Amino acid sequence: MTYSSGGLIQATDYNTFATNTNAFWSTGTGNVGWGQTSISSVSTSGVVTATNWATLVNNLATSSNQTGRAITTRTAPVTGNVVAILANVATDITNLTTSSGNAAAVGTQYTAWTGSSSKTTATGSGSTPWTITFTHTVTWASADAARYFFNAGGIIKWQTSKTADATEADTEWNVLANTLVGAIYITKGAGTQTIAATAYTGTTKVGGTGTPTTLLTTTGWYGLTTTDTAIYQQYSATSPYTGQYILINAKTAGAGTQLVLTTTWVDPGGSAVGSTDAISGGTATTGITFGTAPATVVTYFPPSTTYLSAAWGTPTVAATVA
Q1: Pairing relation of β-strands 316-321 and 114-115?
Q2: Dihedral pair phi/psi, residue 215, rounded to 5°
Q3: 282 phi and psi, to 5 degrees?
Q4: In b/e form, how buried is each residue of 280-313, taking b as 16+ CB within 10 angstroms?
């Protein structure tokens, strides 16, 4: 590269900076890319103008704010002034690329899912085994929109609830769903992301006193395939109900446009004489206002739009229970 103090600013030098910045700023590829408007190149015989430089400088400053990664302070060149060499541009672009999965903030939690996330009727009879299956499908407009969501710091949130308490098994399932499980957050998973000052590595458990038998902490969006992967499993802790568990299977679908989370509440049956495996239904959950019935809810926090435009659109969440 010819870019150095005292030298001419050549189009090839500027174009390299623009291309490397676009790798995380614009479409990018894989686990890098926010979907923002691409920085234009300059023809090899053209002049690198103050406007060109100002676009690059401003986008780097915006990227620094978005990721929380400090870079060299610069003043954007103004048309009519001599454009001086700007120090540390290549280094700052490298550092921002490395930090592009971080986000200083997240957007407002999206809770407008459709369908049913609650099992409002009773389940089980006596000591007979039973399973409740909750399926949640998060859908983006395109595979790139899904990429931008996770690359810019979007978070999927999973949580459970149950408070109806008419049977002995109800009491144990209430502890499992409300106390042991906690909340599960799914991020892109390609390394550690610091989002709104919290570190995420893919599948992150927050809260809950239980010790899971399965927790794939380094598996997130980019670690999933079109085949179910068990990312989290938590068993009950009190006899005779220690065989009860809640399990999350995760996969992609729709050619990279969907995240499908299948949650099973499983009771193997066989409770001791005088007890029961049957549980109650109850009132339905709406949004994140939980009713009393067994419920599994999936919502999300989109990336913040303080510094970026919402290239990821508005994903939808559809829920079913069986």
Answers
A1: parallel
A2: -155, 100
A3: 145, -160
A4: bbbebbeeeebbbbbbbbbbbbbbbeebbebbbb
Does the CA dihedral 182-183-184-187 come out positive or negative? negative
- DSSP calls for 75-118: ----TTS--PPPTTHHHHHHHHHHTTT-BS-B-PPB---EE--B
Residues forming a β-bridge with 118 = 295
Burial class for 144, CB neighbours closer than 10 Å (0-12, 13-18, 19+): buried
- Of 221, 220, 271, nearest to 243 by C-alpha is 271
pLDDT tens sequence across 109-118: 999 999 999 9
Rounded to the nearest 10°, the torsion over CA 8, 10, 15, 17 is: -20
- Nearest to 219, CA basis, from 234, 233, 232, 206: 232
Structure-token match 């490395």, residue found = 98
Residue 255 zone, left/alpha/beta (φ > 0; ψ -120 to 50; rest): left
Q: What count of residues does the chain have?
A: 322
Measured over the CA atoms of residue 14, residue 16, residue 19 and residue 24, the dihedral's sign is: negative
CA distances from 321 to 114, 159, 294, 295 (A): 12, 15, 10, 9
82-137 pLDDT tens trace: 666 678 999 999 999 999 999 999 999 999 999 999 999 999 998 899 999 999 99
Tokens 């809770």 sit on residue: 111
- DSSP code at position 207: S
Indicate the helix (H) or strand (E) that contains 130: strand 130-139
